[in-house]
Design goal:
It contains six helices and no strands. By secondary structure, it is mostly helical. The protein is elongated and about 55 Å long.
Amino acid sequence: MDAIETLMNEHRVIERVCDALVGFADEARRKGTTDKDELGRFVTFIREFADRCHHGKEEEILFATMVAHGFPRDGGPIAVMLHEHGEGRALVGALAAKTTQDGERSAADLQEIADDANAYSNLLHGHIHKEDAVLYPMAEQHLPPEAMERVSAECEQFEEQQTGAGEHERYRALADELVSRHAATSHPAGD
């Protein structure tokens, strides 16, 4: 499987978890309570799979290769993607802070979690669409075939080094579990 196909497949997993996160946060807000550990599991998935593994491959390999072949880093699509990665990290940082908050959560805390979850999900859905529809096709059209082959090989190496044997699948299993528990709550029947 080439790097672009792998990255796009990872996007589908990330999108499903974003929807589940919104469902979890909205349900917590409606019920007036939330589970810090469950929120922590979402944060772990996002930080480890979506950011460290997926965004790591984009930033350190694909984007770097595109820059080496003449794409601007500080302007255009790559700059936008990097900026949005930073925005996502800030939102996840806010969610992570809620996992260590002592005491009961107030209605305002729960609203903040729901707002941050919705903001993160909206950001990522739009971000992923830009990558799938604009950035990745640009890379495929303008990078020489040997550069794309190198990107694919380096992405495989990166994944092995960053996540180790079985870690990538462990995060995919966590994604499946989070989605099965919470995705239906994002669009409950009758809403």
